[in-house]
Specification:
Chain A has 399 residues and is of the alpha/beta class. Helices cover 45% and strands 21% of the residues of chain A. In chain A, 54% of the residues are buried. The longest helix of chain B has 27 residues. Classes of the chains: A alpha/beta (399), B mainly alpha (311).
Chain lengths: 399, 311
């Protein structure tokens, strides 16, 4: 039997790991990053998380690094793929903390993976500025993990502001009070639908059609046909990336006649606007930014120049802002992680989204909740405490 | 039950081994303990998997299903029941589910069983999602004081129970019956062995162990959602680790789990952009170069040495 290829592989791996170990340099700030490059969440992470990290490292190093105790220090990025597997996230964070001796670790991607990593960030004293971890449990989690910070908002706020936007349209006489509400039968979709149902009823809406579909459903035409048969004024889908696209496509085919059309996750992705073009005009979605602010425009231009892709109109900018917050804290108090965490709790930070500070639950109270495609750009139309909200327009057909 | 000298020696050695392993959290509470948890988890899963699949040659891909059920037992019950009760309950539910699956499929020949077990994780996941969707349940958070060392000791205890069970089964009439079934099921049936009953009984072992492993690990994941709890990759990892070691001996899978964990670790730390690709290549290399695992390799070497002695 020929065992040489296997031996070769093993020795190659050994040499590679030895080289990697020697590469660690004492004069750099070692920043760890772990997020999906493969697996179910890779599609989102490669649009929202990784490019902003690369951009930030590139920009900081191009400017000579971060100033720590009067000296400029370059950033060395150590990155791992967790394969959308919480076990791998845990291993990678442990490796970063104990083997790579990372000074700081960028929060992972997604609610589940962030929470799997939270006990380790807590144990090793790393501040965890979570972005794509939207939950209503922020007070409980901040009590359990005092180093964990939340930037992108809560489930209930996301649902409540959709109800508020639709209420305003109805009260302005732009549409009636019939709503069709559907959701993807998976964690976040269920949570949003559960939060929204009583809010719609309290606001005096009539839910004329309600259904759910399993994650990964290919044929969504029954969902749209069922909704159309109920003749709603507004269509709201608490959806995930594949079905956000699928529902929009079916709505175009069926020419779904509604005054407001909302799909949740991935609606702010540039690929959504690129795929549906003029038909996307007036589509509402989760998130948003102020795309006309000079800070965002500068960020978007740099994002495209460095990574070759456009940022999304929601969490990309927040991811970048979380890194700005980290950088400002390091420059203010140095590489002492406990001091950085204390600084995060006390200070206000100037970011591309505007000022960000954390309340007693480590939560950022100012975030975008609803956006809308208008003229090829996804503009924030509802927010908690953010400037630059655009007025909502009516959905006018699918041409 | 009488023990021979070899038996006594093996039991003593195994006890000593577990004793040494139990000291790991005192040596390191960081990286190595983290790897220890991974190794203990896969040892429990792969060894119990091989208890059934080794003698019967039925390839079960249901590990993820039982594991996911276990994590949900802890996720749903952590606020009302003590942790040890949840682990026990998970074991019972896992065994019950395995018995149901066994009743439905083990009377059929091999390939139907493989396909059904592969689909089982997805089936259970969809059922749980359906219930959550209809009750409007929010995400499950498992917030406990159990730390990495505690989880490690729980897993180590489970491993010890698996080895003890395997050893006892190997000495029992059931174990003998299963070896006959594995060699030729028709012969077994004609010798008066109730093949279906024997297979179902033994299939309950990996079902219970995988569910208990999931229940023990739930506090480590903190947040439980279907896509993470029922990840199908787990089933395949368990199979490949057990095969790398060799499923024909009780100690075979652990010989595969340890090098494979280190291999995965080396790959994912050195090839962050090609992890999945390199792991795929490693799978191929293992299947191609070590078809019978390390156990087979060892047997071959021993056989050769003996042959040389004779000539």
């Amino acid at each position: 039997m020929n065992r040489r290829p296997f031996l070769k592989l093993v020795s190659a791996l050994t040499i590679a790991s030895a080289l990697a170990a020697n590469a660690a340099n004492a004069d750099t700030i070692r920043i760890g990053a772990v997020a999906p490059k493969t697996g179910p969440l890779a599609g989102g992470a490669t649009v929202t998380q990784w490019p902003s990290i690369y951009l930030w490292v590139e920009q900081v190093n191009a400017a000579g690094g971060l100033t720590v105790d009067g000296e400029k220090m370059l950033i060395e990025l150590i990155e791992y793929d967790d394969q959308t597997n919480p076990g791998e996230t845990i291993k990678a964070v442990q490796r970063l903390a104990t083997q790579d001796d990372a000074h700081f670790i960028i929060a992972p991607y997604g609610t589940g993976l962030n929470l799997a990593a939270a006990p380790l960030f807590d144990r090793y004293g790393y501040p965890q500025i979570a972005v794509s971890a939207i939950t209503d449990q922020q007070p409980e989690l901040a009590a359990q993990f005092p180093n964990m910070f939340f930037t992108l908002g809560t489930t209930t706020a996301l649902a409540a502001d959709v109800v508020a936007v639709l209420s305003d349209m109805r009260d302005a006489g732009q549409m009636g009070d019939k709503v069709a509400m559907v959701n993807v039968a998976d964690a976040f979709g269920i949570e949003l639908a559960t939060a929204a149902r009583p809010l719609f009823e309290a606001a005096g809406f009539e839910i004329v059609y309600e259904t759910s579909y399993p994650l990964g459903t290919q044929d969504l035409s029954p969902v749209i046909k069922g909704a159309a048969a109920a003749a709603p004024d507004a269509f709201v889908a608490w959806s995930y990336p594949p079905d956000t696209f699928g529902l929009t496509e079916q709505a175009m085919i069926e020419n779904l006649d509604v005054k407001a059309f909302y799909t949740a996750v991935a609606t702010p992705f540039p690929s959504y606007g690129a795929r549906f073009g003029a038909a996307a005009e007036g589509v509402l979605g989760a998130g948003g930014v102020n795309p006309d602010s000079p800070a965002f425009m500068e960020y978007a231009a740099a994002h495209e120049a460095v990574t070759g892709a456009k940022p999304d109109y929601w969490a990309s900018a927040t991811t970048y802002a979380s890194l700005e917050i980290l950088a400002q804290s390091i420059e203010a108090v140095g590489l002492d992680r406990a001091a950085v965490t204390a600084h995060l709790k006390q200070s206000s930070f100037d970011t591309i989204l505007g000022p960000i500070s954390f309340d007693e639950n480590n939560s950022n109270a100012d975030f975008w909740t609803v956006g809308q495609w208008q003229g090829g750009v996804f503009k924030g139309v509802a927010s908690r405490g953010r400037d630059g909200t655009s007025p909502v327009i009516l959905k006018d057909g699918w041409e | 039950m009488s023990l021979t000298g070899t038996d006594t020696r093996n039991v003593l050695l195994a006890t000593l081994g577990f004793g040494v392993c139990a000291l790991l959290p005192f040596a390191d509470t960081g990286y190595w303990l983290g790897l220890g948890v991974t190794i203990a988890m896969f040892t429990a899963l792969a060894t119990s998997w091989a208890l059934f699949s080794g003698p019967t040659h039925y390839i079960s891909l249901a590990t993820a299903a039982f594991f996911g059920v276990g994590t949900y037992v802890t996720g749903l019950g952590i606020e009302t029941l003590p942790f040890w009760a949840l682990v026990g309950l998970a074991g019972l539910i896992g065994a019950g589910l395995a018995a149901l699956v066994g009743l439905a499929t083990l009377r059929l020949s091999g390939v139907y069983f493989v396909i059904f077990t592969l689909g089982l994780a997805e089936l259970v996941r969809q059922v749980i999602t359906w219930v959550q969707n209809n009750t409007g349940q929010k995400g499950l958070y498992v917030l406990t004081d159990l730390d990495e060392a505690g989880i490690y000791w729980w897993l180590l205890g489970l491993c010890a129970a698996v080895f003890l069970t395997g050893w006892l089964i190997g000495r029992s009439r059931l174990g003998f019956a299963l070896r006959i079934i594995g060699d030729d099921e028709i012969v077994a049936a004609h010798s008066g062995i109730n093949t279906a009953r024997a297979k179902i009984l033994l299939f309950m072992v990996p079902g219970a162990v995988a569910a208990m492993t999931g229940a023990i690990l739930a506090p480590r994941y903190v947040y439980i959602e279907p896509s993470l709890a029922f990840a199908p990759i787990l089933s395949f990892q368990v199979v490949i680790m057990a095969l790398l070691g060799g499923a024909s001996r009780l100690w075979g899978p652990v010989v595969g789990v340890i090098p494979f964990t280190f291999l995965l670790e080396t790959v994912s730390s050195n090839f962050p952009n090609q992890t999945t690709l390199v792991i795929g290549v490693a799978f191929l290399v293992i299947v191609y170069l070590l078809p019978n695992g390390f156990v087979g390799l060892l047997d071959k070497v021993l056989h050769r040495t003996k042959a040389n002695e004779v000539t």
